[in-house]
Design brief:
By secondary structure, the chain is mostly beta strands. A hairpin with a 4-residue loop joins β5 (58-67) and β6. The chain has 1 helix and 9 strands; from the N terminus they run βββββββββα. It has 2 domains: 11-82, SH3 Domains (SH3 type barrels), CATH 2.30.30; 88-130, no CATH class. The strands form 3 sheets. A 5-stranded antiparallel beta sheet has the order 6-5-4-1-7, with no helix packed on it.
């Protein structure tokens, strides 16, 4: 069996508070103590999505991620943002309006966006061509 240990960064840590780092947990549960803190700005790789979650007044999901040190764990999606290619925007696949990567509920059509794969990335030069 071939094991893929190649690190492919998809997200960056963006702390919501002045915390010392984003908590990484063994299970998707905020009552479980974190085993590691990841610094603001660190790149991580998205592996899978868990259940809905909230921390304070921020709603999101549990994301299973991998660090560049090849450590897997669970974090709150509100503490990370997707790394975008330069000159790229994100749009809702349902109403085709520009959305924030922090949103998992489209503010325009109010649809729940729960799958990482359904975000649509469009290079800005193609958006200009459409107009």
């Amino acid at each position: 069996m071939l094991i893929d240990n190649l690190f492919k960064p998809t997200h960056k840590v963006k702390l919501l508070t002045n915390a010392e780092g984003m908590s990484l947990r063994e299970e998707p549960d905020s009552s479980i103590a974190s085993f590691m803190k990841i610094k603001d700005g660190a790149e991580v790789q998205f592996l899978s999505m868990g259940d809905k979650a909230s921390m304070g007044n921020v709603n999101g999901f549990w994301f299973k991620i991998k660090t560049k040190e090849n450590i897997n764990g669970w974090c709150f999606s509100g503490s990370i943002v997707k790394i975008l290619e330069k000159n790229t925007i994100k749009i809702c696949p349902y109403c085709e309006k520009k959305i924030s990567m922090q949103d998992f509920l489209c503010k325009y059509c109010k649809k729940d966006i729960t799958n990482e794969d359904i975000f649509i990335e469009i290079p800005i030069k193609e958006v200009i061509k459409i107009k």
